[in-house]
């Protein structure tokens, strides 16, 4: 932790800088996620055809019949593809869950409610607790999706400076907490819906898919992880990051007129990115905003009360046939609806009081804006849907799962060590594939069936993936928000480069990874449920 930042004028590049430069060069050679999955689709198409011609078949344990591999470039395969292209896209499970939640979050975000809640959380924290407030807001900030990377860091810098603390500690700490803890939250987010949808799409082909996976299937694990990471983020900001910034003499005031500069790594010719928006932010809510927050919270509480009362009634339609809720019930199948109303109603109330939503015509406008922000995902979902559909239809996933499970068993790596290896693989891939949905689509298709054959619940494997998916993304230059952060940082350190950011993010990545794995280990050792109705092992 005492190595000086290599981006602050060191004439000779250190080994870490050379290594990370190599990672960046390799990563830049990867195609974008759409093209990557198009290539993978073609690879599966060719491989499935070759295996079909070779009459390859596999018997999945528990299945009554063997699975015969079907080829894409056959009469059957081409007929299947041309008749199901639209169904493959619209049938992509995340679309049914992510889009409604996006509409609701869009109301809460575009009305200003989410920003106001964040500012209130920051502004009400005492000076000593600010690092932990930043950790709290950052870790649960995934509820704002990618907007968290742009909104939280400058707000954290503002409140740190107002409290007489180092603003760069707030800036970097806010980004690190939001990025390294992106896959977990104390609240149900669109990411939960996205991951569970992908997992469900894979488990549909399994003879024993375990308990159904829904957006709440990792909630207990997420809550415990978020609590640990919040405290750890605050500790790192307070005891490691801020003291080091002070020792290095990093300025606490913005350097006027010197924040343009090159945005890429020193010595590169990468074009400078557009500066992140920097509106006049205030950690103090106006009287109208405070009134709006109060009424929005009251409205959310009222909606929650109605839902709870409706669920606990003896003859509630949300109970299952046995009068309960687990492992499957209309209540658990209504998670998307519940999340939708818990965001939409408070957002509408806040918008009406503050004037950000003046009339009914503003509602579809703000909803449309949220969908527009996710237009890239809608395009990516097209090829993801085709890839998953082909992977499942061809039977290659079953063949890989059986072969992989047999391979793990043959080397004795079938228990928890295999899970750790899986997390390590996800952490490495996360340096190159920034899109969590794209990476989970790729890994779930192989590892969910593989670990299911070894007896692990898909929800548990999904939880393990979240650890590897999140912790390392604040280290990779392929993360576009690293450039946005660098632009903000250069307002204080005009000569800072990506090496500066990476060096300061490293403690968060290492400690978050260790702590998060420790939480997963506790759940595994004690057999704790990952979420309502979802355990560690598949029953039977």
Unreliable runs, pLDDT <50, ≥5 residues? 1-11, 257-280
Total number of beta strands:
2
Number of helices: 20
Please list the strands of the largest sheet in the order they lie side by side: 1-2
**Rg (CA only):** 24 Å
Provide the β-strand percentage band: under 5%
User: Termini, distance in Å?
Assistant: 49 Å
Global morphology: globular
Most strands sheet:
2 strands, antiparallel
Structural class: mainly alpha
- Helical amount: 55-70%
Task: Please give a quick description of this structure.
With 540 residues, the protein is mainly alpha-helical. Helices cover 64% and strands 1% of the residues.
Descriptive notes:
The structure is a single chain. A hairpin with an 8-residue loop joins strand 1 and strand 2. With 540 residues, the protein is mainly α. It has a two-stranded antiparallel sheet. The protein has 20 helices and 2 strands.
Show the helix and strand layout.
Layout: H1 15-29, H2 33-53, E1 57-58, E2 67-68, H3 75-90, H4 93-110, H5 113-123, H6 130-139, H7 147-162, H8 167-180, H9 190-203, H10 219-248, H11 287-312, H12 335-354, H13 362-373, H14 375-394, H15 396-410, H16 416-429, H17 436-453, H18 458-471, H19 480-489, H20 498-526
Antiparallel strand pairs: 1-2
